[in-house]
Structure formats: C-alpha cells, structure tokens
Amino acid sequence: MPAGITQYVLQGGPCDGNTGDLTPAIDSSGRIQCGGHNYDRAEPVQVVGGRELFKDAGAIPAPPKPGVSPRAHKAWAHLQHAVNREWPATLKDSGRMTSAALRALARTHKV
C-alpha cells in the first residue's frame, strides 16, 4: 500500500465506483469481493483521488452443484450384476484352475 493511502476505489463490474477502507487483510491479499465479482489490485499500483485502485477481475466462479451423477443408478446396477452373476463364475473358474495346478504339481518329479 502506498504511504498514507487508507481507502480503495473499485473500477468496473457491478460495484464500479464503490469505495471503502483499505484494511490490512485486503492489503495483504490484493483482492476484494463485491457484487459477485473479484476486484484485484491494479498493477502497477494506481492511486485515483487519494484511493488505491482495484480493477474488476470477473465473476466469482460458482461452487459445483452437489448431486448424484446422472449415471450413478446404471453404475450401481452394473456393479450388482457383476457381483451377483459374474463373480461366482469367476471364483468357480479360479478354484478349478487352482485344483488343476495342484494336480499337475502332484504328478511332477520331486527333487
């Protein structure tokens, strides 16, 4: 903050021309939020009418909407199908292959 400057002025956006006190928090962050927009400190620092200038940096991004994925129900149905229909067959095949491997090991020459 330039020496002796204790206020800011906003330029552009919905809060164009608004003024306020330049607090240490605002001074350290270099950003003010007003009317759904971010205002960033002008670089290089500019002083207009004895106030530090902050320029419109655009709208504050909206947070993501909470909710369920549109494919969540299909994914759940797919998982249920896999667990109930495909896993038992896969486990049966795995057991059969394990037994075959053990039989083959039993028949081999031992050292």
List keywords for this structure.
single chain, 111 residues, alpha+beta, 2 domains, six-stranded mixed β-sheet, 2 helices, 6 strands, elongated
Secondary-structure map:
Elements: E1 7-11, E2 19-21, H1 24-29, E3 31-34, E4 37-41, E5 47-48, E6 51-59, H2 72-107
Low-confidence stretches: none
Q: Secondary-structure element order, as H and E?
A: EEHEEEEH
**Approximately how much helix is present in the residues?**
25-40%
Report the C-alpha radius of gyration, rounded.
33 Å
**C-alpha geometry:** elongated
Count of spatially separate domains: 2
Mean pLDDT: 89
Helix count, per DSSP?
2
Instruction: Look at the helices and sheets and give the structural class.
Output: alpha+beta
Q: What summary fits the major beta sheet? A: 6 strands, mixed
Number of strands: 6
Strand content: 25-35%
Distance between the termini: 85 Å
Write a brief structural summary.
The chain is an alpha+beta fold and 111 residues long. It has helices at residues 24-29, 72-107; strands at residues 7-11, 19-21, 31-34, 37-41, 47-48, 51-59.
What does this entry look like structurally?
Strands 1, 2, 3, 4, 5 and 6 form a 6-stranded mixed beta sheet that branches. The protein has helices at residues 24-29, 72-107; strands spanning 7-11, 19-21, 31-34, 37-41, 47-48, 51-59. It has 2 domains: 7-59, no CATH class; 71-111. The chain contains 2 helices and 6 strands. Helices cover 38% and strands 25% of the residues. It is of the alpha+beta class and 111 residues long.
